[in-house]
Design goal:
The chain contains six helices and five strands; from the N terminus they run αββααβαβαβα. The chain is of the alpha/beta class. It has a five-stranded mixed β-sheet with strand order 1-3-2-4-5, with helices on both faces. Helix 5 links the parallel strand 4 and strand 5. The longest helix is centred in the first third of the chain and has 21 residues. The radius of gyration is 18 Å and the shape is elongated.
Length: 175
Amino acid sequence: TGGLHYRWPDLPSLTIEQRLHAKLDAVRAFARVNSIDRQVVASAGATVGIVTAGKAHADFMEVLRRLDISTDTLAAHGVRVLKLGLTYPIEPTRMRDFARGLKELLVIEEKGPVVEDQLRTLFYNAADRPVIVGKRDAQEQPLIPALGELRPSRLISAVADWLVRHFPDLDRRHL
């Protein structure tokens, strides 16, 4: 009796749901201790941040290359970038540390807003919370493509526009 695994003759019940929550807590604890996420760009005085995951991170880095914007340039302008190694469940302690002091977080991820929705939930009642944008911007207009394969050519205009909104001198949209 104990442990987190399903066993015979378990039937759908509160016990299974309790085990699921315990499993997710165990995953979060593992991620907290083992630092699966990686801060790609650190900036002590950052005002905005970008959270990427999986292939979307490689696409984002290619967008930066095409725009001729280095990670050092992002840091100098006050942008932090975090590459998630674990997208579900996100590790809340490290995410809160990353977002501390930021006005806005841009979430770049493939397909549906899995990370984006978790961040909205995480910061919902926070006294100092960033605006979270991704599939949609703060005015609920489409921002990052949600349908089809995410690739640099589909991402470049959204990232360029977002960067220019925060840092007009980073306008590389003519490239």
